[in-house]
Amino acid sequence: MNDSGAPVRILSLESSCDETAAAVVENGRVIRSNVVFSQIDLHALYGGVVPEIASRAHVEACDRVIDEALRRADMTFGDIDALAVTYGPGLVGALLTGVSCMKGLSYALGKPLIPVNHIEGHICANYLTSPDLEPPFLCLVVSGGHSHLVHVRDYADYTLLGQTWDDAAGEAFDKAARVLGLPYPGGPRLDALAEEGDPQYLKLPEPHTEGRYDYSFSGMKTAFLNAVNKLEMTGQELQKADLAASFRHAVVESLVGKAMLAASETGAGRIALAGGVSANRELRRRMTEECAKAGLPLYMPELSLCGDNGAMIASAAYWRYLRGETAPLTLNAVPGLRLVTAATKG
Ligand code: KG4
Ligand code: ZN
Asked: What is d(CA 327, CA 315) in angstroms, rounded to the nearest whole number?
């Protein structure tokens, strides 16, 4: 609530990768509008995100998604209490277009600007889907750029328990999909194909990491690549669904195993999933099973909020707004922004 007892309305912009997205969210929980302009068609031709093309497309789309978010919320700038923008991590050019756009708006409107960490945004997507969810909880954040196990101690207060040493889970899915000849973005397509396959078809090595809650996906990715190459070189027809199911099984079992280990060893009372890969069917099924066995409530963003969107950024901004955290007009994009500094890694 703001001083007059009305809900705090935040207008957000997200442009860290290949989605230009804007949203209006009330009190960090209630979505009034959520507009996502996907650039997938622009990048599909190249088999992945081309940073320069992404930046240019964001410049063209920023104004339009913001106008559309206000229109769908049936509001004007006058109804907005604060602005929010993703300032990292992500592609520097893509982030800069969003940051510049929102700094301009903040100055012109005289409204505060709240800088948001993209990973924090993914975690906060859960507050939008589950009105009853409150910290503390354990969160498995799995996206195209990150695989983190995070202890969410409080709103906007995190301890990093573990992370990937090499590829992120989404990145590994995308690379495996490419090996199978699936078009970009491969993760969701591999997931769909895997539904008809045998997960025991190909055994992949289990990763070993020093940190108890850390991940590593490059070993299983290389083993997968070698197995597919061998099949091709010996002229065998690729059993794509079986291969997809085997790879998905290996990645998901690793994600689930470490998440459940961390939950039991840290005494977490509940678990949440976040990030693009939290849309993965097998991950959602397996986490549901394991959490039921352990008697732990599981929270998952609804499918439309798993991938990049503006509403999650506006939610994350709300908790920072309550703490009075606003950005100066010197705010810059930080492509390598971390969720927590190394000193607070648990
Ligand atoms: O969170 P996100 O939209 O963007 C980043 O912050 O990276 O995550 C995108 C990643 C991509 O690697 C995409 O292939 C993966 O999430 N992804 C999936 C699924 N849906 C999206 N991976 C596996 N199964 C899915 N159903
Ligand atoms: Zn993301």
From this structure: 16
Answer yes or no: do 120 and 142 share one domain: no
With respect to residue 4, please indicate whether it lies within any of the assigned structural domains. no
- Residue 344 pLDDT > 60, yes or no? no
Q: Do 35 and 56 fall into the same domain?
A: yes
Name the residue of 19, 171, 173 to mutate for ligand 1: max ligand atoms within 8 A of Cβ: 173
How many A from CA of 129 to the centre of ligand 1?
18
Q: Which domain holds residue 289?
A: 135-300
Q: Which residues of 176-211 are buried (b: 16+ CB within 10 A; e: fewer)?
A: bbbbbebebbbbbbbbebbeebebebbebeebebee
* Residue 148 and residue 141 in contact, taking contact as beta carbons nearer than 8 Å: yes
Query: Is residue 138 within a helix (H) or strand (E), and if so which, with residue range?
Result: strand 137-142
With 90 as the cut, is the pLDDT of residue 153 above it?
yes
Do 292 and 143 belong together in one domain? yes
pLDDT at 71 over 80: yes
269-323 pLDDT, tens digit each: 999 999 999 999 999 999 999 999 999 999 999 999 999 999 999 999 999 999 9
| 215 & 275 share domain | yes
Residues 13 and 121 in one domain: yes
Q: Which of 299, 213, 218 is nearest to 260 (CA)?
A: 213
Q: Using the atom order of ligand 1, give the atom closest to the CA of residue 168.
A: 12
Check residue 277 and report its DSSP letter.
G
CA of 156 from ligand 2 middle (Å) equals: 17
Atom of ligand 1 nearest to the CA of 308: 3
Q: From the CA of 265, how far away is ligand 2's center (Å)?
A: 28
pLDDT in tens, 42-57: 998 898 899 999 999 9
Q: Tell me how many domains the chain contains.
A: 2
Same domain? 112 vs 229:
no
Q: Is residue 301 within 6 Å of ligand 1 at its C-beta? A: no
CA of 235 to the centre of ligand 1 (A): 32
Q: Is the CB of 280 under 6 A from ligand 1?
A: yes
Residues 242, 202: contact at Cβ < 8 Å?
yes
CATH code for the domain in which residue 198 is found: 3.30.420.40
One domain for residues 283 and 254:
yes
